[in-house]
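Why this split exists: single-chain examples teach little about how molecules sit against one another. For that reason, every record in the complexes split bundles all components of an assembly together and asks for one structure covering all of them. Below is a record exactly as it appears in the raw files.
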Amino acid sequence: MNIDRRSGCPINLSLEVFGDRWSLIILRDIIFGGRRHFRELLNGSMEGIASNILADRLKRLMELSMLTKADDPSHKQKAIYSLTEMAITLVPILAHLGAWGRVWLPVSEELSIRAELLEKGGPPMWDKFMNELRHEHLGASPAPSGPTVRATLQAAYDAVIARNAERVGCDPAP
Amino acid sequence: MNIDRRSGCPINLSLEVFGDRWSLIILRDIIFGGRRHFRELLNGSMEGIASNILADRLKRLMELSMLTKADDPSHKQKAIYSLTEMAITLVPILAHLGAWGRVWLPVSEELSIRAELLEKGGPPMWDKFMNELRHEHLGASPAPSGPTVRATLQAAYDAVIARNAERVGCDPAP
DNA sequence: TGCAACCGATTGCAAATTGCAATCAGATTC
DNA sequence: GAATCTGATTGCAATTTGCAATCGGTTGCA
């Protein structure tokens, strides 16, 4: 599955990179979910990706220089997938996409709280997040200070989940 | 071809709307190319879409409320496709997508000049363009004043074409 | 009036893609 | 040394895609 190069139009070429049903979902899980291993991506995927498709897309995204793969020193079979700068700069696009979907599509509350926060945070928050990703995936020098953007988003997600569980009486212990 | 609703995640749902190889290309041609008829979209498409796929996607985009169809009073068989507000608000996403593609992908000069201008114009230009689209497609009241954004982009494109034609000695008349 | 060109599609068909289930061999854990 | 976990691969049926040909109706022109 290569780039067809149907035309040199930037929008067309962008679509040829991630204009399918899975590539951007995988990148989303790596970026926002912090997943780095095959199994994490396979089992953690909300949408239930099949293992052969995951393998194919990871390979394709590596060929396109969106991802790199490295050995995990702690486990000789494990591979660690890392974002490239090319993929990290998708953050503003993902933020816009999330914001658009939140307005026009039947999103669920839990899963859109992250998009809402990211939208409210605006470009400064996106920049901070991209720098954190650079540190995490590219080994860029400045370690993030204070709570990370991902942790902030995750905490908001967890809070919504907890609140909704309480509301329907799913509190574990009386 | 309906929305699967694999999950309520905004990014996933957005992808289910236009995460294929053609939907966004069609919207691009309507938005930036000003095309409104089936044949215009079919023949004007840089990427060479097939008529059955175009028909299918137009139908799908109408079901998703991204487009509406109306009779052309001047031709009983002609249909005019119009953008909905939902589709018009994709402009910032298309602008980002174009900007990203221009940085990371092997775009051609002619086809990326529009993306470059749109990027430089920033949100104010996008807003102006969206208002023009609202006038054109939704009959919104304020007619655009001065040169339209689309005309500006088109002129820049034509200028690049002309300059390159001259450079390789393709000037029509001596 | 005749006719070619054009209108938005539709159909048939081969090829590619998708998604599911089962399976793999090596590494690690218990 | 058995069970589990690792990143995949394979076989297969169903769906989707893209191409070419074609459709019935409309229009413009001679």
